[in-house]
Amino acid sequence: MSTNLEVSNWKYSSFLINQNNNFNRNEILKVLSPENIDDAYNVISSWKGYSPTPLIILNKLNEKLKFNKIFYKDESKRFHLKSFKALGGAYAVEKIIKGNGKKVISTATAGNHGRSVAWGSQKNGLKCKIFISEFVSETRAEVMRNFGADVIRVKGNYEDSLNECINQSNENNWQIVQDVAWENYKLVPKLTMAGYSVMMKEISEQIKNEKISHIILQAGVGGMAAAMVVGIARYLDHVPKIIVVEPDNAACVLESIRSGKIEKISIEKESIMGGMSCGEVSLVPWEILKNSVDYCVTVSDDYISKTVKFLANRQFSDEKIIGGECSTPGISSLIGLNNNTELKKKISLSEDSNILLFGCEGDADEELYQKLLTE
Is the pTM of this model over 0.70? Predict the structure, then answer.
């Protein structure tokens, strides 16, 4: 069966135009300064084993969708951590511990952020306490233990694990390195986002003279999406249409953009895309996303397994790509938007379009990845 037959009936779940869209480079760079962004690149690019991750062209998918090019940033090859999160947590650990005297780092995670924090702690000779919810797989927990972390499982969801992390850290004087911001806790999330922005620095050099027309950004609490917007403001001359994609049962950015203020949503059913199954957008990302995003789109879990398989089986590209569950929604939402002729025209998707997608993780959860491959 051809790829065309497989994807011609794919649909997105919901779509929203941001009525408050007004991309302002200067305002964005007030939230995260050029100095912070440049420092992150200078530090991270000096780490042992650093090299830019590949920017792959999904030429076979493009033969079906008929744009100019579809670029895919392959973060499965980021250091040995298999995720873009390697750039954030580890960098924040290195920056925040300088001179503060704390010997124990703590964080709550759905998996990839904790792996980065554990790695950063190990590199800097620090103890690390990682709090995970009952929904985080034992496979992910074991990887963090392999980086020397003490992993504490908490009953409930991600938010419950974060609350427990904050409580125990306050009691024990541990340094929290979290990728989520709250009142009076904004420096570390900003450092984390500065780390993520390295991806856009690399992309700006990899695309050479091509202009990106559309960029689709995955959002959980919004850190990666906002960091890429910051990267656009810092590194790209041309501002693309910015689309945020979320799981349809965890669309906290979409609902916040709809109302113009942060909305906390109740997640009735956790998405397989665990790293994106978040009920509330973080404060710092919100400051960036609320006016810079053009469109929000949501997708169901229905296309995750097929997308993982198509990437692995070279049906989207000449190259075999290992893309985990959270690498899929950019692709599935693009296909869904393309299949809606009226909407495709409205958001200016055409044969001249250059679309940038993010393969934000590889088989970071190996057990789940193998399951998705064989479903």
Answer: yes
